[in-house]
Amino acid sequence: MSDGFILAADNLTKEFKGFVAVDDVTLKVRRGEIHALIGPNGAGKTTCFNLLTKFLPPTRGSITYKGDNITSLSPADIARRGMVRSFQISAVFPHLSVLENVRIALQRRRGDSFDFWRSEKALSAFDDDARALLADVGLDEFERVLASDLSYGRKRALELATTLALDPELMLLDEPMAGMGHEDVDRIAALIKRISANRTILMVEHNLSVVASLSDTITVLARGKVLAEGDYENVSRDPRVVEAYIGAGHD
């Protein structure tokens, strides 16, 4: 895109039976950046994220990705275009090994079908690529471990590997640090920083120290509206932002 923005929302609005959850939000995500969407509880972050990733239709407004209007497209359509979402709750197959989980995600390279019944020989063609992705997320020593036996933080790393298997240009991360201890937070933050080297990331995140250390640009929502935008230093000093967080009793 000539203007440098990979994703843009214009006057995005979502109403639920008279309640305005997202109110005339305009947002631009610059290619190659880590962009955080933050705000106190009830600010509309999740609804906005669901609109951007097409899990909810907007009441009004438009969404543009790589210069194309994607407002009416489905989540599957935008995933095929390189815009992939990772969910707040870890989404892996618990009774498959770590390697098998990534291998299934890689099947997209041969089409849209996830053929669990294909022969081991056919599926093993994906092993080298799967192992490379596991190395990228620090799970190369765990390839034969069942996903259900991983620690919570490593399950999230596995989920990132399966997301990366779809080769996204834009990754949308929904609270990637939710429920993690300090050690896992540090590991996943370092991982996100590393994988952002050649892609764009938009994330919703409550952990403000993570937001401060990772984000190039931050958009603050409050009561469904954009309250402030900029880098962490400027946003954190904005009196409106301070008031919104204190007023919401947010940690």
In short:
By secondary structure, this protein is α/β, with parallel strands linked by helices. It has helices at residues 45-52, 75-80, 98-106, 120-123, 127-136, 152-164, 182-195, 208-214, 232-237, 239-247, and strands at 5-16, 19-30, 34-38, 60-65, 68-69, 83-86, 170-174, 200-204, 217-222, 225-230. α6 (152-164) packs parallel to α7.
Could you list some keywords that capture this structure?
alpha/beta, 10 helices, Rossmann fold, 4-stranded antiparallel sheet, 10 strands, 6-stranded mixed sheet, 251 residues, single chain
Describe the model:
- The protein has 251 residues and is α/β, with parallel strands linked by helices.
- The chain has two domains: 1-82 and 170-189 and 199-251, P-loop containing nucleotide triphosphate hydrolases (Rossmann fold, 3-Layer(aba) Sandwich), CATH 3.40.50.300; 92-167, no CATH class.
- Helix content is 34%, strand content 25%.
- The chain is built from ten helices and ten strands.
- It has helices spanning 45-52, 75-80, 98-106, 120-123, 127-136, 152-164, 182-195, 208-214, 232-237, 239-247; strands spanning 5-16, 19-30, 34-38, 60-65, 68-69, 83-86, 170-174, 200-204, 217-222, 225-230.
- The strands form two sheets. Strands 6-7-8-3-9-10 form a six-stranded mixed beta sheet, sandwiched between helices.
- Helix 3 packs parallel to helix 6 (152-164).
- The longest helix is centred in the C-terminal third of the chain and has 14 residues, at 182-195.
- The protein is globular, with a radius of gyration of 19 Å.
- The mean pLDDT is 87.
In terms of topology, how is this protein built?
Blueprint: E1 5-16, E2 19-30, E3 34-38, H1 45-52, E4 60-65, E5 68-69, H2 75-80, E6 83-86, H3 98-106, H4 120-123, H5 127-136, H6 152-164, E7 170-174, H7 182-195, E8 200-204, H8 208-214, E9 217-222, E10 225-230, H9 232-237, H10 239-247
Parallel strand pairs: 3-8, 3-9, 6-7, 7-8
Antiparallel strand pairs: 1-2, 1-4, 4-5, 9-10
